[in-house]
Predict the 3D structure of the following.
Amino acid sequence: MQLYKRKGIYQVSFQLGGRQVRRSLKTSSKTIATQRAAKLELELHETQLFGKEPERSFKELMITYLEAKQRTRGYSRLQSGARHLLAFFGNSKLSEISPSSVERYVTLRSERVKDGTIKREAGILSAAFNHVIQKHGWKVTNPCIAADLPSDPKGRVRFLTRPEAARLVQAARRPVMQSGKPLCDFHKSPVLADFIELALNTGCRKQELLGLKWSDVDLSTRLLRLSTTKAGEWQTVPINEEARQVILRRQKRRDEVCPDSPYVFFHEVKRGDVEVGERVQDLKNSFKAACKQAGIEDFRIHDLRHTFASWLVMDGVPLFDVSRLLRHSTIRMTEKYAHLAPDHLHQAVAGRGFSAHFQHTENSLKAVA
């Protein structure tokens, strides 16, 4: 075991199960730190000799889980959820975390966030326990299994009408201040309007489009080849004429501003440490401003994907085809749009009633036979 200080507090580092483990001894006194390290060493010796499970902290659980997931997609969102869990459970020992502890966390968080957020954070907690149980052989129990958690939130379907979409694109292309004067180039996003149009015509997710490279665009086959997908695998998306025109505009703009940029959506002006040609990371603020200017409320960037799907269904495209265009893993994920096609449901039952079997039939008994 090795003792060392970090921000005035003694820490101990040791090997456990073939990996390096670090723990805080929660004291600035060397004498107390030495005593606690000796106790910890004894516990580890008993573990190796008698198979006794060592006492582990919640922080050790989360560090172990986050270290294993740091190269996975969505890691930043995972960190965000973990911060709230760490703030609540802190230095608790895993043996102290029970289903009732998890339910207290749910109660506390419900005062500030919606059920969907709580469900996601509880999912992180459950996944962390499952990870150490399955991958590291920790003899602990997942408290989330028996805890009373919020039910899965209903799928949100918020979409624009075509006139609303036109207003949004117009606001994105010519953003103005509250005074009515145009925004200066530094405070607006010159790529936002093209981004919105491409999203409305392809149904792609935000990161799929922002991560799109010119090497992924094939105008000869009218396909986008996506590498940054939710499924974590390569997928292709067909592009219509409107999407093709957006790509051509982006191509022309690239040639004018930064011919060497590999990204379809790149920074056209230098912003702080961000150079011209680098990938646009987010459009949240400029998108929110465009929605406000267009008079559109309760609308998020991901709702552009919902709009794409909703328009397809209302235009009579079968749900199976919509599912394939959205690249859903199962058609059940697409069924939340089914209510938008009531006319087709009426057509499906037309002529199926009991009396229809006897129409144009002189002998009803013959019809029965």
